[in-house]
Amino acid sequence: MVASLAAALPAVSRVAVIGAGAAGLVAARELRREGLRVVVFERDAAIGGTWVYTPATESDPLGLDPGRDIVLSSLYESLRTNLPRECMGFLDFPFSSRRAPDGGDARRFPGHREVLRYLQDFARDFDLYGLIRFRREVERVERDHDGRWQVDSRSVDEAGGDGGDESEVFDGVVVCNGHFTEPRIAEIPGIDVWPGKQLHSHNYRVPEPFTDQVVLIIGSAASAVDISRDIVRYAKEVHISNRSLPDEPPRKQLGHDNMWLHSMIASTHSDGTVVFRDGSSVQVDVIIHCTGYNYHFPFLKTNGIITVDDNCVGPLYKHVFPPSHAPSLAFIGIPWKVAPFLMFELQSKWVAGALSGRIALPTKEEMLEDVKAWYSELESAGWPKRYTHNMSNKQFEYHDWLAKQCELPPVVEWRNLMYEAAGKNREARPESYRDEWDDDHLISQAEEDFTKFLCHSSISSIY
Ligand SMILES: Cc1cc2nc3c(=O)[nH]c(=O)nc-3n(C[C@H](O)[C@H](O)[C@H](O)COP(=O)(O)OP(=O)(O)OC[C@H]3O[C@@H](n4cnc5c(N)ncnc54)[C@H](O)[C@@H]3O)c2cc1C
Ligand SMILES: *[C@@H]1O[C@H](CO)[C@@H](O)[C@H](O)[C@H]1NC(C)=O
């Protein structure tokens, strides 16, 4: 049973999008396609969010001080994508290596600048720049008595120009503020007396400052793998503390003479030693926390209806709509362990359709029931709360579910196969997966698909 939207909502016409990263850009495009009037608020002076590399780092290298000057991007200079470009791009804007013939980065796992260029081309080809208000930070989003949303923003013009504070009313708000800016830190016994230097991967840029140092990297995911390889060329020793490893003595990382894998840290001490759970210890100069990020919506005033608890944002129907405010408040990009751009695009199509009234949502009660069912599924699988939005083995199903809501066909098979093949390859060849692979047949399928698509499209600037 679905509720009649038309009866429940005033006509939606103006929608605010918060953020002009990949999620905000594709959301803006989809909302406009549905005939909605869109204003995108972007704190930065440029589009691209995460993909705008800056050598700048934050005043607090751990990123904990709430009063610090925030640097948005977490990119390091050497970063190359961890997904093959063909399955990383949007559905209908191929991120093919045949694009950018003029000095672009044609590698299958390109450097970060190529991704930014792709997003800039996307924004230009879909004429999105005119929708964006740059250097405006949304400070407050609150629902009025009549169900509309008041959006307060301030100018962040460095020159201190005019602009100032503004307050505007919108029918809908789509939150696309990203979730790789607010560091999450490991709790370590004794860290208060440990004399070394600490930083979070958010503030890691280049390896040279770690020359001849003994570096301990905490983390098990992509950034720990990449940053350890980046630094090991300069550092005296690199140690990785990986909570997925059993409490066993350290072992050398294959292929490296000065890199060791350890279990979790047991304690740290005032003489600079770090003791691991297996009893071994190392004298360490620097700890780098590659321990991920927290969701953070400092502007959202919803009287406790939407909360962030142990990295669970809730309640959210299908990770997108808070049932009590659906569809006028929506979140794009919450799930992780996904192919982000594709997911942003499908979520955006769903949100845009729901906001225009073309796609109906279930009732509030039904949505809440669905959220509860998801929570109990996680619980019976023994997953911690912080994994609520981890889509590792659910994302293909989730994408197809979203596509179905939008009356679109399921995601084309090569994308899923390629995503899986890349994951397996990354496990098997952590050092070289970006340059060696076994799925050329999938690249051919992707290119065939892209060519077919481009024949039926008005986009001309890609090849
Ligand atoms: C180190 C690293 C490596 C990654 N590698 C890959 C990869 O290889 N492949 C891949 O597909 N994905 C990768 N990702 C994931 C990446 O985050 C996504 O690809 C995507 O860029 C996220 O887009 P987003 O729009 O959700 O968020 P963001 O890119 O963070 O954009 C959010 C935007 O919102 C703006 N904003 C925030 N708050 C406000 C406010 N209050 N008012 C106004 N504007 C605001 C910000 O300025 C920013 O521009 C990586 C992420 C990281 C951190
Ligand atoms: C941590 O261990 C897991 C499981 O063995 C592995 O998949 C992952 O790549 C490791 N991470 C690092 C940074 O070594």
Automatic annotation (TrEMBL):
<dbReference type="InterPro" id="IPR050346">
    <property type="entry name" value="FMO-like"/>
</dbReference>
<keyword id="KW-0274">FAD</keyword>
<keyword id="KW-0503">Monooxygenase</keyword>
<dbReference type="GO" id="GO:0050661">
    <property type="term" value="F:NADP binding"/>
</dbReference>
<comment type="similarity">
    <text>Belongs to the FMO family.</text>
</comment>
<dbReference type="InterPro" id="IPR036188">
    <property type="entry name" value="FAD/NAD-bd_sf"/>
</dbReference>
<dbReference type="InterPro" id="IPR000960">
    <property type="entry name" value="Flavin_mOase"/>
</dbReference>
<dbReference type="InterPro" id="IPR020946">
    <property type="entry name" value="Flavin_mOase-like"/>
</dbReference>
<dbReference type="GO" id="GO:0004499">
    <property type="term" value="F:N,N-dimethylaniline monooxygenase activity"/>
</dbReference>
<keyword id="KW-0521">NADP</keyword>
<dbReference type="GO" id="GO:0050660">
    <property type="term" value="F:flavin adenine dinucleotide binding"/>
</dbReference>
<dbReference type="Pfam" id="PF00743">
    <property type="entry name" value="FMO-like"/>
</dbReference>
<keyword id="KW-0285">Flavoprotein</keyword>
<keyword id="KW-0560">Oxidoreductase</keyword>
<protein>
    <recommendedName>
        <fullName>Flavin-containing monooxygenase</fullName>
        <ecNumber>1.-.-.-</ecNumber>
    </recommendedName>
</protein>
<dbReference type="GO" id="GO:0004497">
    <property type="term" value="F:monooxygenase activity"/>
</dbReference>
